[in-house]
Write a structure and sequence with these properties.
Number of helices: 10
Structural class: alpha/beta
Number of strands: 18
Oligomer: single chain
Strand content: 15-25%
Strand order of the largest sheet: 1-4-7-3-9-11-18-13-14
Shape: elongated
Order of helices and strands: HHHHHHHHHEEEEEEHEEEEEEEEEEEE
Radius of gyration: 37 Å
Distance between the termini: 102 Å
Amino acid sequence: MNNRISEYLKSLGDRLSDLPEDEKSNILNYYEEYLYDASDSGKDLDEVINGLGSAEEVASMVNAEFQLQDARKNPSVKSFNKAMTHVFRGVATPMGYFLRGIFLIVGYALIVTVMLGALTAFISALAFPAMMLFEAVTLRTSFIAEFIGSIGAALLIFGIFSLAGLGLFALGRTLVQTAAGMLSWMLHRNKNKESYTEQASSKKVSKQLEKKLYAVALAGLAAGLVLFFASGLPVKYFVIFNSMKPDNVQTVSKTYDIGEVTKISVLTAQSCIRVVPSDDGKLRVTYEQPDWLQGELHVTDGVLEFKETSNGRLPLFDIATLHESRTQVTLYIPKNYDPELITLESKGGIISIDNVAANINAKTYTGEITLHEDIPIHIAASTEVGAIEVGGRPAGERNARGISFALGADTLKHIVLTTSRGQIVIR
């Protein structure tokens, strides 16, 4: 073997260690044949080698070409990362560094963002359905429709997020292929050198698994839609989150002797609370009960207590309670009745107080608090992230805890209004 060719091939082979052995062997055979053909045809070997470039230059080119082709045939963040590494090894000019640096920043940012979106979607396709299945198994066994609806919601969520993940993954692969193709063009522009890897045939990538995943996602989506809508749960959630009063409401009303009640406590999950004067002089509580809530009403040691909780029928009840139900608890207070304290609290419901002269503490999380008061009374109001409106205008002072408002009056009666995320309206 010609010593010049032998040294060149050995130097080239040492720099192709990242390639598979069969690919490395084929490349070395290709350049060996190319150099011997040139030598046998009478060409000056030094000129031929100079035309090819040094062993280091050719190895950088070949490694970059191979990794770029692999990124196009098997697109992924990993294959794109390897391709970029080898492309930068072959950069020799400041402009090359600049152009490929732009690709590194923009290409990586876009590809990684899309791939992370796909990963997030796939994780969500498992996590959220698992949450819905947990909701299903914790429902009371008598609620068959809600159980079926929870299973349907789990399948529906699985289908939606799986299809989103597969779509983002396909987009990410396309971006890798496009970026690898553009980098390959940048690598070869203004170059007329022979390239072994450009003559290599593309490896076929199996699409069977991807097709099966799409089929499973679509099947889950279709089954979920049927089960979820057949259960009636979408209608129930629509009624809640659109502040509509449900049709299937049972009204419970009880009257109490004011001599037996010194304090009143009303706590609701999402039903609204209304406190109004009693026209007939009786202390009365009226509760509109939907089919997913239950109310407990009793008097213990002079304290009239009402507490609203879930009856176990509505999946994702804690989320639903962030919005009010248009069912209502109405507390009728006689004008001559002077309780020590009336405590009102609702997580998602609205609280309304109409011209009741009593010591009242009202608190909500997301619900609005409305006070209509013509009787002189001391008022203190505060909200963390909401707003306070008095007489149709913004009021209160902003502080570290949110907004506070106070209105004094020559009376011992006081009303304290507190909300975390709701609005307070005083008229």
